[in-house]
Amino acid sequence: MIKITTTIKRQWLQEIAAGRKRVEYREIKPYWIRRFSKIAVPFLLRLINGMQPKAPELTVIVRRLRRNSRSGNFELHLGKVTEVQYWDIKRGRPLIP
């Protein structure tokens, strides 16, 4: 399965890890149009909070990709979280090395 990597703010990473946020949004811009045109659903989305070597990250399955021209966003409908690194799901915060 194809994997796309992008950054995300900690607040949204925490919500996705807890299962409360089921849709991720990306602006309709040439960068995302190019990236999404080369893949088929389902695919893996790797979300990283920061640029450090041990930055918290999640990998989730994107079940559906919708282009919403009215809001100007791509809607990535998230499925199951397949991988979690450097994040404590129970406490909802990064793991301290």
Would you kindly provide a written description of the structure presented here, covering whatever features stand out?
It is globular and about 40 Å long. The longest helix is centred in the N-terminal third of the chain and has 9 residues, at 10-18. It has one domain (3-94): Archaeosine Trna-guanine Transglycosylase, Chain: A, domain 4 (Roll). The model has no long low-confidence stretch (mean pLDDT 95). The strands form 2 sheets. A 5-stranded mixed β-sheet has the order 1-3-4-5-2. It is an alpha+beta fold and 97 residues long. A hairpin with a 4-residue loop joins strand 4 (57-68) and strand 5 (73-85). The chain has helices at residues 10-18, 30-37, and strands at residues 3-7, 23-27, 43-48, 57-68, 73-85, 87-88, 93-94.
Summarize the structure.
The chain has one domain (3-94): Hypothetical protein (Archaeosine Trna-guanine Transglycosylase, Chain: A, domain 4). The protein has helices spanning 10-18, 30-37, and strands spanning 3-7, 23-27, 43-48, 57-68, 73-85, 87-88, 93-94.
Features of the shown structure:
97 residues, alpha+beta, Archaeosine Trna-guanine Transglycosylase, Chain: A, domain 4, five-stranded mixed beta sheet, globular
Fold blueprint:
Elements: E1 3-7, H1 10-18, E2 23-27, H2 30-37, E3 43-48, E4 57-68, E5 73-85, E6 87-88, E7 93-94
Parallel strand pairs: 1-3
Antiparallel strand pairs: 2-5, 3-4, 4-5, 6-7
